[in-house]
DNA sequence: ATCGTTTATCGGCAATATACGATAAATAAA
DNA sequence: TTTATTTATCGTATATTGCCGATAAACGAT
């Protein structure tokens, strides 16, 4: 049976983890959602929808991606969902991204 | 007829730019390529291929994405291509990402 | 000019992502 | 209980991404 190649096979775990942060940020809607969540401190899907040029179901999907990548936590609160930024995960993300950036800048003295 | 919605419509330019960096980093192969380029300072596609579990044409496509997002420059050098990390762009990326991270951490005092 | 080397691009296919409307599920309000 | 509200999920359509093999393009070497 053919080995099903996934995005993650054959790469170091730290590289895969960093790419996961990239995936989370790879769509403007998700970046915008993170900023909105941070500004309001506590938020629900509906209010976010009002500020985005997307349907409610689409926003819900983007929130799911952010949850999958760990940047956001969601709790049910009555008929609403309370989405919060996971500050620990944001810090973890920034640690990984800064580590990557540092190693790129440190060594990237191109001789071309 | 219908307006063709692209990924970028309806979002602030800074948000779109940040999402572009995310897109560049959103695949483990691209993260790995950046690290390899930084380590070797100067590199060609073929040598990178040897270190990645991907076909030469696939690596070339990932390099194209990195070029599109500005993180990498490529110069033709005889039959080879010399790919270099664009250190200025890396710094610009880190500035954007750190700005995002700071604004998320500053305000993300979740009361849920 | 021909041959070997190297990289980019093309064609095609499978998988994933994006988007929307409709609907289900859960709860608050009446 | 019925109704209204809110969010998640389903179904579906389209676009994009990712992957490979094959081939083209460019060049150095012979």
Furnish the topology, listing elements before pairings:
The structure is a homodimer of 112-residue chains.
Chain A: H1 13-25, H2 28-40, H3 45-50, H4 56-68, E1 72-77, E2 80-85, H5 87-107
Antiparallel strand pairs in A: 1-2
Helix pairs in contact in A: 1-5
The structure holds a DNA duplex (30 and 30 nucleotides).
Description of the structure:
The structure is a homodimer of 112-residue chains. With 112 residues, the first copy, chain A, is mainly α. Chain A has a single domain (13-96), classed as Orthogonal Bundle (Arc Repressor Mutant, subunit A). The first copy, chain A, has five helices and two strands; from the N terminus they run H-H-H-H-E-E-H. The first copy, chain A, has a two-stranded antiparallel ribbon. In chain A, strand 1 and strand 2 (80-85) form a beta hairpin. The longest helix of chain A is centred in the C-terminal third of the chain and has 21 residues, at 87-107. The first copy, chain A, is elongated. Chains A and B meet through helix 1, helix 2, strand 1, strand 2 and helix 5 of A and helix 1, helix 2, strand 1, strand 2 and helix 5 of B. Chain A binds a DNA duplex (30 and 30 nucleotides) through helix 4.
CATH superfamily of chain A: Winged helix-like DNA-binding domain superfamily/Winged helix DNA-binding domain
Summarize the amount of helix of chain A as a percent range: 55-70%
Beta-strand portion of chain A reads 5-15%
| CATH fold assignment of chain A | Arc Repressor Mutant, subunit A
Q: How would you write the strand order of the largest sheet of chain A?
A: 1-2
What's the β-strand tally of chain A?
2
Gyration radius of chain A (Cα, Å) is 17 Å
Q: Which of globular, elongated, flat, extended, rod-shaped describes the shape of chain A?
A: elongated
- Main CATH class of chain A: Mainly Alpha
The sequence of SSEs of chain A as H and E is HHHHEEH
What's the assembly state of these chains?
A: homodimer
**Overall residue-averaged pLDDT value of chain A:** 90
Of all chain pairs, the largest interface belongs to: A-B, 57 and 57 residues
Number of helices of chain A: 5
Low-confidence stretches of chain A: none
What number of structural domains do the residues of chain A give? 1
Query: Could you give the distance between the termini of chain A?
Result: 45 Å
CATH architecture of chain A, please?
A: Orthogonal Bundle
* Structural class assignment of chain A: mainly alpha
- What composes the largest sheet of chain A? 2 strands, antiparallel
